[in-house]
Amino acid sequence: MTEIVIITAMQSEFNAMCKLYDFSGDDKFAVAAVNGHQIVLIKSGIGKVNAAVMTEYSSNLKPDYIITTGLAGGIDQSLHQGDIILADKACYHDVWCGSPNQKGQVQDLPPYYAANDEAIKKIKEKAPDFNVGLILTGDQFITDEKKLYQIKQDFPQALAVDMESAAVAQVCYLNQIPFLSLRIISDVVGKKEQQQQYEDFWKNMPSNASKMLEIALSALLSG
Fold first, then answer.
1. Is the pLDDT of residue 100 over 80?
2. How wide is the angle at C-alpha 169 spanned by C-alphas 81 and 145, nearest 5°?
3. What residues are labeled active site?
4. CATH number for 201
5. CA angle 104, 137, 140 (to 5 degrees)
């Protein structure tokens, strides 16, 4: 039985995670045994459709958890590059199906997809410095401050944006599989050094990105 599936979007993310354990496979799909538990690592590609396709594929493995991990852009000015976000829920920032639906809500589905509460508690016990909150997903790399302002108006409690988490969460919801999103902040939208932060991110942060996953897996696989 596959106990945990980890989905990353980019090759650089996948490669960083591969260094954690003795994974065997190729540059898109790898498997490792960790303390008697089977871990599957998958590269989905960037964006909602790619993420959804690979999450649906992963659901056939009947895992205990599906985790989407990698980088995210911070949209809360209290955040800094390298901060960790553990989503308690995920939502789309670029979906509008008209009234009476909420912003971000796909009609006939929940406006927010909740992450697994028990898993969040286990991880927070191991890593109290992880930030827990809402992560937003859209098929856009956000650099425009006007766009950021509109997103924050719509979702004032949101901490970060990415291009996969809500899509993974939606498929997990439909398949009744516990979902988690664990993200490291690559850049903070609206800060003047944002573009340079993003460009420098994978030169400076790959070890931290993989370390956050190691902490989470340690929490989930203990006991």
1. yes
2. 40
3. 13, 187
4. 3.40.50.1580
5. 110
